[in-house]
Amino acid sequence: MGLGGISIWQLLIVLAIVIMLFGTKRLRTLGSDLGSAVKGFRKSMSEDGTEQPEDGTQQDDGDNHASKDK
Fold first, then answer.
1. DSSP type of residue 6
2. pLDDT tens, residue by residue, 33-60
3. How many domains does the chain have?
């Protein structure tokens, strides 16, 4: 018995049908597009986290509205 009652033979048959329908070139392109999307998402998430200083305080960028001239 395989994953959730699905045997390995059933998975192989489904895989063969998917390859016949879409072809290997299209599946390879889809996989690389998905991989680059995940990589871009991870990069943007890591860039958001690096904007704060290491000690946990917020940086003063000069846009403090309380200290502006009245």
1. B
2. 999 999 999 999 888 766 555 555 555 5
3. 1
